[in-house]
TrEMBL record:
Gene3D superfamilies: 3.40.630.30. This is Acetyltransferase. It comes from the Bacteria. Residues 4-176 form the N-acetyltransferase domain. The keyword Acyltransferase applies. GO terms for molecular function: acyltransferase activity, transferring groups other than amino-acyl groups. Keywords: Acyltransferase, Transferase. The keyword Methyltransferase does not apply. InterPro entries: Acyl_CoA_acyltransferase, Bact_Acetyltransf, GNAT_dom.
Length: 176
């Protein structure tokens, strides 16, 4: 496999990112969620374009193809996209709060080929460089194996009830 090339996403990348995210939500959660839960998860997941505006959202490309994406944030919102309620743009204090790892997605054809790990490492490095000593994220059940392998530990399990039906998620954290 060619190694993933990472770059910061721009607003011009939004259509390709959103299409890839829709495929990832629909295909990569099949072994973990019911069809109704997958539909509900699509209503609460997605890209918060503030991550792109803040220069904190990475795209991974292999052979010129979009292979995955993910970001980190110094803002309080833990998860959700532009359409999600309850977003909080408050800036976090790196001395006392954890950076957020956000909107991690892999193009299904590139799953389990190191793309997520490469994007996650870039996010952690950027958060560390910004002064954060800890990171937190909200994991889907399909994402949890990656995060566990990368040293994240579960903090709490929740059922997101913002969609048509509850969707199980796991808040996880790690010292950087």
């Amino acid at each position: 496999m060619s190694e993933a090339v990472l770059r910061l996403a721009t607003a011009a990348d939004l259509p390709a990112l959103r299409a890839m995210m829709a495929r990832a939500i629909a295909e990569l959660q099949v072994a973990f969620l019911s069809p109704d839960e997958i539909v509900a998860s699509a209503s609460m997941m997605g890209l918060d374009s503030q991550l792109i505006a803040d220069g904190c959202y990475f795209m991974a490309e292999i052979g010129g193809e979009l292979a995955g994406s993910g970001g980190w944030s110094r803002r309080a919102t833990l998860y959700g996209g532009d359409h999600s309620s309850g977003r909080d743009a408050r800036l976090l204090d790196p001395a006392t709060e954890a950076a957020r790892i956000r909107a991690m997605y892999t193009e299904p054809g590139f799953a389990r080929r190191g793309v997520g790990r490469a994007v996650l490492a870039a996010c952690e490095d950027a958060a560390r460089a910004a002064g954060f000593a800890r990171a937190e994220l909200m994991s889907t059940l399909s994402g949890q194996p990656l995060y566990l392998a990368a040293g994240y530990v579960p903090i709490e399990r929740i059922l997101d009830t913002n969609g048509a039906m509850p969707v199980p998620l796991v808040r996880m954290g790690k010292a950087l």
